[in-house]
Design a protein that fits this description.
The chain has a two-stranded antiparallel ribbon. With about 220 residues, it is mostly helical. The protein has two domains: about 1-50, no CATH class; about 90-205, no CATH class. A hairpin with a 3-residue loop joins strand 3 and strand 4. The chain starts with 8 loop residues before the first helix and ends in a 9-residue tail after the last helix. It has helices spanning about 10-15, 55-60, 65-70, 70-80, 90-110, 140-145, 160-170, 175-190, 200-205; strands at about 15-20, 30, 45, 50, 135, 200.
Length: about 220
């Protein structure tokens, strides 16, 4: 890999290699370094590998890793890096799931109306440090990608996820009302057969091609 990049081995190791524990047996081994966002340091632009033709076997096996094939968070994390990974949901099933999600959002807004402490209606939960703590389900991300729009500075508008609605109303996700809303969301996933997954909002939206740039 160092040769493919025109680098001395020592320089390549210093920049792109680290020692890590093998999750299979706990032994120490060498691994490629990752950035703070979890991406390999050899990825650039739209996740193009700088040493693609010389990548190691582990990289060549991607995305057929056990953690990815098992679905859930592992699958969504891989999807955030590789947008080519997609979940095919039948339009009819997605439509039903979206209708039920819209009903859930409406009911939740009605419940939160009296307790809302939202003092920044023109803000967006995808901006600033608060975005690091915003999570959403795959269903919510699919809905936002299809229906999100810019409205008074909010790039999701009426498609903003439960976590954003609770935060703007001053209600924590761990509160009884938040837990109840998420239970209803999981019921929609089960009843419609929509893939159940949960992850960091910006990563899920980015994987679905949603524009995350701030609006003027």
């Amino acid at each position: 890999m160092a040769r493919a990049l025109g680098m001395q081995t020592g320089a390549f190791v210093a920049l792109h290699v680290r020692e890590a524990s093998d999750p299979r047996d706990g032994s120490r081994r060498l691994a490629l370094r990752e950035r703070a966002d979890g991406r390999c340091t050899l990825l650039e632009g739209r996740n193009t590998c700088r040493a693609y033709e010389s990548r190691p076997a582990h990289c060549r096996d991607f995305p057929y890793w056990p953690s990815v094939m098992a679905g859930g968070a592992g699958f969504e994390a891989a999807r955030a890096t590789c947008p080519g990974i997609a979940v095919a949901v039948a339009p009819e099933r997605a439509g039903i799931a979206f209708e039920r999600l819209e009903a859930l959002y409406g009911a939740l807004e009605a419940e939160l109306a009296d307790s809302s402490s939202d003092s920044t209606p023109d803000g967006c939960c995808l901006d600033g440090s608060a975005a690091d703590d915003l999570y959403m389900s795959a269903l919510e991300a699919d809905y936002a990608a299809a229906h999100g729009h810019t409205a008074h500075g909010c790039r999701l508008g009426a498609a903003r996820p439960i976590g954003c609605r609770l935060a703007r109303a001053g209600v924590g996700c761990e509160a009884e009302r938040g837990e109840h809303a998420r239970a209803r969301l999981r019921a929609i996933e089960r009843e419609t057969g929509h893939p159940a997954a949960y992850g960091e909002a910006r990563a899920l939206l980015r994987a679905r091609g949603f524009a995350l740039e701030s609006t003027p």
